Amino acid sequence: MNEQHTYLFSVGGVSFYEHGEYGDEFNLIAKIDGKWINTYYMDKPSLEEAKELVADVKAGHEETYEVM
After folding, report:
1. Do the domain assignments include residue 46?
2. Would you say residue 1 lies in a domain?
3. CA angle 7, 10, 35 (to 5 degrees)
4. pLDDT digits (tens, 9 = 90+) for 4-42
5. 65 — pLDDT class (breaks 50, 70, 90)
6. How many structural domains are present in the chain?
7. How many CB atoms are closer than 10 A to CB 29?
8. pTM higher than 0.70
9. Are 17 and 28 in contact (CB under 8 A)?
10. In a domain, 18, yes or no
11. What is the DSSP letter of 5?
12. d(CA 2, CA 58)
């Protein structure tokens, strides 16, 4: 991945970014455990959503996110 993603904000210790190539026309990107994650969120997630995302990534529930 050659795009430079733009940091937007953090929620619950998770950093969220705007996609480097597609900008706000793409889902929010998160960096979790050193991996870029397509979160499928278009807007800032709640604290609970961020916690669920981290739990899903750690558990390998790839139906709720996509490793980029």
Report:
1. yes
2. no
3. 65
4. 999 999 999 999 999 999 999 999 999 998 899 999 999
5. confident
6. 1
7. 24
8. yes
9. yes
10. yes
11. P
12. 25
Residue 32 Rama label (left phi>0; alpha psi -120 to 50; beta):
beta
Strands of 66-67's sheet in order across = 6-11, 14-18, 29-32, 35-38, 66-67
Written as one string, the DSSP assignment of 21-51 is: TTBTTS--EEEETTEEEE---SSPPPHHHHH
Q: Distance between CA atoms of 28 and 19, rounded to whole angstroms?
A: 7
Using one digit for the tens of pLDDT, what is the confidence trace for 39-58?
999 999 999 999 999 999 99
Residue 59 above 90 pLDDT?
yes
Residue 60 domain boundaries: 6-67
Write down the pLDDT at residue 48: 97
Residue 49 lies in a domain: yes
Provide the pairing of β-strand 6-11 with 66-67. Answer: unpaired
